[in-house]
Amino acid sequence: MFKSGFITVVGRPNVGKSTLINHLMGAKLSIVSNKPQTTRKNMNAIYTDDDAQIIFVDTPGIHKAKNKLGEYMVHVAKESLSQVDLVIFITTASGEIHPGDALILEELKGLKTPKFLLVNKIDEFTQDRVAKTLELYGKAAEFNEIIPISALKGKNTEDILALVKKYLPEGPMYYPEDMVADVHLRFMAAETIREKALKLLQQEIPHGIAVEITTMKEKENGNWYIEADIICEKDSHKGIIIGKGGQTLKKIGTWAREDMEVYLEGKVDLKTFVKVRKEWRDNQTLLKELGYKE
């Protein structure tokens, strides 16, 4: 009996959704940073073994939107709840119901789809706070499974895949067995650059950047030539992204190229440029051009 299904992973920004998926997949597929709202689009991570195919949908964090990009992200995340076979809701052990989580719990009420509650980052909190969180959230909605975990350290994560399979229906293999993600190489390249920018830039800037791959060519020898625009909203941000003597931009490119060469399996000649597009996060045309469209 072969089982298959789609599992959406929801939670407020920066609770460890992408970290968990990367850990369960045993490979880095979603970008990770300590900045909130890192994930902007749904991405399917595909886990296949002898008896099941599990498709994890990594969603943007559900939050109070402040611009059209935020509205798109929240819509994408909420839309995924009604289209999957199982929902994994991730929070952290704060000892109380976070205001952002209250919005998600409201969305989960009345949802007949099986639901897991994973309380993440338990190594960062006391046992009392973990226990209080488990109790509060367990009463706030009906969950089929409740598991305290540390996705980063792999604590209490070894049984998650087996539990997921338990709730999946019989079904076909939706993707080829050797496929691990349903995204194009251009998307992966853009996200790789954005991840490095997130790690290097100041807190207020990352939300205002996007990355567009303008050229991506594979050469006859298996190497790659890539050109990318890092788009920001202010002239002052452009200067910060470039850095003194171009050092910050150079470091973003170097770090991104190192990662790209692993999954592209060849040398990468990467050229990065910085362009200002004022208030692009509220510009419907630019959002569509950058791929943020329903």
TrEMBL record:
It comes from the Bacteria. Residues 149-151 are annotated as: G5. SUPFAM superfamilies: P-loop containing nucleoside triphosphate hydrolases, Prokaryotic type KH domain (KH-domain type II). Residues 37-41 are annotated as: G2. Residues 120-123 are annotated as: G4. Residues 3-170 form the Era-type G domain. Keywords: Cell membrane, Cytoplasm, GTP-binding, Membrane, Nucleotide-binding, Ribosome biogenesis, RNA-binding, rRNA-binding. Residues 11-18 are annotated as: G1. GO terms for biological process: ribosomal small subunit assembly. It holds the Pfam family KH_2. PROSITE patterns: G_ERA, KH_TYPE_2. One of its GO terms (molecular function) is small ribosomal subunit rRNA binding. Residues 58-61 are annotated as: G3. InterPro entries: G_ERA_dom, GTP-bd, GTPase_Era-like, KH_dom-like_a/b, KH_dom_type_2, KH_sf_prok-type, P-loop_NTPase, Small_GTP-bd. An essential GTPase that binds both GDP and GTP, with rapid nucleotide exchange. Plays a role in 16S rRNA processing and 30S ribosomal subunit biogenesis and possibly also in cell cycle regulation and energy metabolism. Belongs to the TRAFAC class TrmE-Era-EngA-EngB-Septin-like GTPase superfamily. Era GTPase family. Monomer. This is GTPase Era. It comes from Proteiniclasticum ruminis. The gene is era.
